[in-house]
Structures are given as C-alpha cells and as structure tokens.
Design goal:
Elements (H helix, E strand, L loop, with lengths): L39 H22 L6 H22 L3 H21 L4 H5 L3 E3 L10 E12 L12 E15 L5 E15 L2 E6 L4 E5 L9 E16 L1
Parallel strand pairs: 1-2, 2-3, 3-7, 4-7
Antiparallel strand pairs: 4-5, 4-6
C-alpha cells in the first residue's frame, strides 16, 4: 500500500483480501431406506379369522344353537392370538385397532341379546288372542315387546280365500301359536337373532327370510293361513 495519501478500499474479495474461500464440499444424499415387506402376521391373522368364522358357521348349519355374538367372539379370539404373537415378532399395531372395533361390536351385540332387552322380560307381555277369524287383524305391530299371537282357538275351515297376517316388531320376541289343522305358509326373518319356524332353526346376523309350508295334522285342507313375521333384533317363533 502507498505510504501516504490515497489508500485503496479493502473488501473481503478486493485486491488485498486474499484468494476467494473454497466452497464447502457437498454432502452426498443418503440413499432411501429399503421398503419393508408386508408383515406375514397380518395374512396369518386374517386366515385364522376366516377359519374361525367357517367353523362357527358349519356348527350353525349342522343345527347347533349359535348366537350372533359367537361370530364376533371367534374373530376377536383370532385377533387376540395375533397380538400375543406380535408381542415377540412386532409389526402388529393395526391389530390393536381391529381388536378395539371387534370388542365394541361384541359388547353391543351381547347387550342386544341379553341385558339391553331385559326390561322386556320383566314387563307384562303382549298377547293377541282373537276369538274368531273375523276378529283376526291383518297387521300386528309393536316397537319393544314380547308378543304372542295365539290362534289355537280359531277355525279356518270355513274360509275360502287365504288369510294373510303381518307381524312386525323392532326389538323383543314374536311367538305365533297355530291351530292343528290349518294349512300355513309362514315366512320369518330376524335381522339379528334367532328364527324358529315349525322345528326349523336359524340364527345369526341378517340370515335372510326363511319360508316354510305345512298342511297340519289332517293334511291339505282346513283353510289357508299366510303369516309374515319380522323382527329387527330378537326371536321369531312359530309353532303348533
């Protein structure tokens, strides 16, 4: 620099600032983590659930008394076993959510089968007992009831046209008592519960409508009765 007078400006990269700094070395990007394979435990648990459903359904079809809660209990058992195995193998978190959903559904269904409608058992049941075919109504309906339609004292032999009766209850039980000789065409449906039609039994969730025909003790003749009984949750029973 000159000894006096004008001094040139100084800047980091000016004529007296030295060489420019070396740019930093770029850090190489980390390779993406390898994708984990789907857990085999998930497929195993789903397979066990299907197997449990099949065993319960087979027992139901063979005539065993199976409640709707049994299907949910079988599925929940399979999930519980999967959680026990997953405690050592890991990667079973989604089974916790599935187990909670099944537990909630099992509690609701079990309450519907038992305690939730317990007040219906302690209350006075509904009994419809017409004394003649003319007094027999075409429709019987109730919300929550243990209802019995007693037709044992009616004589349908004098009727020329089929007599049609509709019975509809939301929660509870429908019981129809038939006379011994009338020809009957009965259709029963329980969305959640049991259906017993003339010694034939069905149980489960939304098993569909079931229809049976029976000519009574005397064979064809003696009048014609058509019954359509449906309940949302509970039991439908038609007997002679």
């Amino acid at each position: 620099a000159p000894s006096g007078g004008y001094r040139p400006p100084f800047a980091p990269r000016g004529p007296y600032g030295g060489p420019p700094p070396v740019p930093p070395t770029p850090v190489p990007a980390r390779p993406p983590a390898p994708r984990r394979e789907p857990s085999r435990l998930s497929r195993i648990v789903l397979s066990v659930m299907c197997l449990a459903f099949g065993i319960v359904a087979l027992y139901d079809l063979m005539g065993g008394s199976v409640r709707p809660s049994a299907y949910l209990a079988a599925a929940l058992t399979a999930v519980g076993l999967g959680l026990v195995v997953g405690a050592w193998l890991g990667r079973a978190r989604w089974l916790i959510v599935l187990g909670l959903v099944l537990s909630l559904a099992l509690g609701i269904v079990s309450a519907g089968e038992g305690g939730r409608v317990a007040h219906l058992r302690s209350g006075k049941p509904i009994t419809w007992r017409p004394v003649s075919v003319a007094e027999l109504q075409s429709t019987y309906q109730a919300d929550f009831a243990n209802a019995t339609l007693d037709l044992r004292d009616l004589d349908f032999s004098g009727t020329t046209d089929p007599v049609v009766v509709e019975i509809r209850i939301d929660v509870g039980r429908i019981r129809v008592l038939l006379p011994p000789n009338v020809d009957v065409d009965v259709t029963g449906k329980s969305d959640l519960g049991d259906t017993d039609l003339l010694d034939q039994h069905w149980s489960g969730i939304d098993t569909g409508a079931h229809r049976l025909q029976d000519n009574g003790e005397d064979g064809p003749g003696g009048g014609k009765l058509i019954i359509n009984a449906r309940i949302d949750m509970g039991r439908v029973e038609v007997t002679r």
